[in-house]
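Data card: per-record layout.
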Amino acid sequence: EVQLVESGGGLVQAGGSLRLSCVASGFTFEDYAIGWYRQAPGKEREGVSCISPSDGTTDYAGSVKGRFTISSDKSKNTVYLQMNSLKPEDTAVYYCAAHLPNIPEAPCASSYYYGMDHWGKGTLVTVSS
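The structure for this 129-residue chain is written out next.
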């Protein structure tokens, strides 16, 4: 059974930092693109960042570039999202998701085009002003 379990959310003041973790199980970690998405109240879900654990390539939404860093630990089947300089507009439920690439040479691009195959239940991040 495929499982993605997020943790690390919480309440933080603006300018602060949090690190989210996503532990994956039930599939071959390196074969997938792993992404972080978020959904704020009353807004649509948006992509935040993506990583291909097999080669370490990453991608970021413009709104978080330079503030967030995605990384993976293949020995732990875990993807992290280090979030620095947090802003109130970063408040959202953050979801981890996995995609088996249809375009092997571009795993994250494949995930954007074809959509994610598996989702976690999310972790809430609240940034106070």
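Known properties of this structure: The two ends are 40 Å apart (CA to CA). Helices lie at 107-114.

See the next section for split statistics.
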